[in-house]
Amino acid sequence: MVKVAVVEGDGIGREVVPVARDILAAVRPDIEFFDVEVGYGRWERTGSACDEETIAALRSADAILFGAITTPPDPGYRSVLMQIRRALDLYANVRPIRGEGVDVVIVRENTEGLYSGIEWTEPDRACTVRVVSRRGSERIARYACTLAKSRRHLTVGNKANVLKSDCLFVEACTAEAARAGVPCTFCYIDALCLDLLMHPDRYDVIVTTNIFGDILSDAAAYLVGGLGLLPSANIGEGHALFEPVHGSAPDIADKNVANPIAAIRSGAMLLSHLGDPASAAAVEEAVDRVLRAGIRTPDLGGAAGTREFGAAVLREVGRG
Amino acid sequence: MVKVAVVEGDGIGREVVPVARDILAAVRPDIEFFDVEVGYGRWERTGSACDEETIAALRSADAILFGAITTPPDPGYRSVLMQIRRALDLYANVRPIRGEGVDVVIVRENTEGLYSGIEWTEPDRACTVRVVSRRGSERIARYACTLAKSRRHLTVGNKANVLKSDCLFVEACTAEAARAGVPCTFCYIDALCLDLLMHPDRYDVIVTTNIFGDILSDAAAYLVGGLGLLPSANIGEGHALFEPVHGSAPDIADKNVANPIAAIRSGAMLLSHLGDPASAAAVEEAVDRVLRAGIRTPDLGGAAGTREFGAAVLREVGRG
Ligand SMILES: CC(C)[C@H](C(=O)O)[C@@H](O)C(=O)O
Ligand SMILES: CC(C)[C@H](C(=O)O)[C@@H](O)C(=O)O
């Protein structure tokens, strides 16, 4: 039996996650789902967006299906997503970007770099320590190399011309790529952002540090028309969280217009991660068939609602 | 009399800078130029790419016309450009990006952030301190607000949802924008990279911290087909350096094929900075007329050489 924690979160998370969950349930009746409440809504009601008990519940799951969270306008508030990534040590943020002429996977180190949390304020300046550890670099390099080995090649996004801390990262990637026998090239992150946009066909798997990956993956989303359809995975040892890249979009919430594709595709990544690539492929293909049949939510120019689109995918999955 | 230091640097810097210099000399016969040797060529010959004496010479100039420098494959080598920016405290890196539907100026803080140089290596990790100072934030905010006041509005690129050090930056920009009466909005740097690509018309002046500006300006260059034609300014108190955004491109050097437009436009920014917007406009317009006449270097599909393109601009400037 497989246990999947479901975190709807806020806004459209509460509409797209149930759709994805129903599809997972259809292809894998053995999954036991349990809900975990986290986010802004909970914070408004209880004063806490996420606590130790929540983390323990998430920790007990084989995988987490995650929606999106609204950030409260409270300066003291810490991102729940960051809290969870850190608590479960979800070190690999994986963002596949596929479209016309684009088939790239961005693998972002997800626990350190500028997200170290080591920060202080002096009277006249504020400092954050960018931490690049050997262990952190090696494990993300290993993850990216394993992925690149089953694909084509690896590009290491870095800024070692300015940051000594990136020399360690580059070294670790060089060593892992050699060990794995993966062709590997290096590119400064600024130049990489531009070149990925100009020549997406030159890239396959890209590995980089935390905030560079954060920025690069948003820039790369331009190649497929924005964040709307992109899934992502946050992978650790024994824990993994799957989430659409888009946010909670409170402005369009509760209108049955949100596009559930990113959430459904995140569900497919979850199935793959659970060792069931066949079900993952079945879900992916069902989405593609529904799109080819011309069924679309309003953001793609269609008239289908969130639920209707989900029902159509569910039908196709049954047929597949 | 105005003193302009000329740093050709390496590669195509040695071809495009003389072209720009001749054009400046034509519109402003009162400029006294003097050469300063800096870069890889010098490093190969003398073991030093730039020293105190060089810095003193650059410091004595009213403005610096700069080409491009090849980075030697020496891990101990420090970027000469970074050295000069720091020594002359060139705190504002200004990159105008203009094209079909795009008229944006990126103002990047150029002296601190992740470029603090405060770095250390421990046995198992390497650290870099990102420093955001109140003074540094206030002066770049003031620079950006002054610019935005003569244009339309300001966007502040930041990552204050993750980095406490960016709260200080956001605060400083908020205060300066209020003081200057400039409409000001805030955007997380990852979302900004994507939204600038998707909706360039929504942006005017963008101010951000050092490495975010480095990455954002490369991504934005996609909107105008790459770095090739983009000029930039590095501005301090009493010192200023103007350089094409492109590099030294050793692969195409010494072939009379490099496009000198970015260098010429950097020259126009230099004239503006010296308080001569009329001459700056004359140079800009001369370039536009030459392009309209169909004279182009090979990168733009033409057959004109670097020198021939320069000569054509020189003729137009004479006519203007
Ligand atoms: C919401 C924010 C903390 C987060 C990040 O910076 O990692 C987001 O941008 C992302 O990419 O998942
Ligand atoms: C060459 C490098 C040190 C430099 C930087 O990072 O500032 C370059 O990318 C730039 O944008 O001028």
UniProtKB/TrEMBL annotation, chains A, B:
What species is this protein from?
Methanoculleus submarinus
Entry GO MF terms: isocitrate dehydrogenase (NAD+) activity; magnesium ion binding; NAD binding
Q: Which domain of life is it from?
A: Archaea
Name all Isopropylmalate dehydrogenase-like domain ranges: 3-313
Could you list the residue ranges forming a coiled coil in this record?
A: none
Q: Does the keyword Ribonucleoprotein apply?
A: no
Q: What is this protein called?
A: Isocitrate/isopropylmalate family dehydrogenase
What family does this belong to? Belongs to the isocitrate and isopropylmalate dehydrogenases family.
Q: Sorted alphabetically, which keywords does the UniProt record give?
A: Oxidoreductase
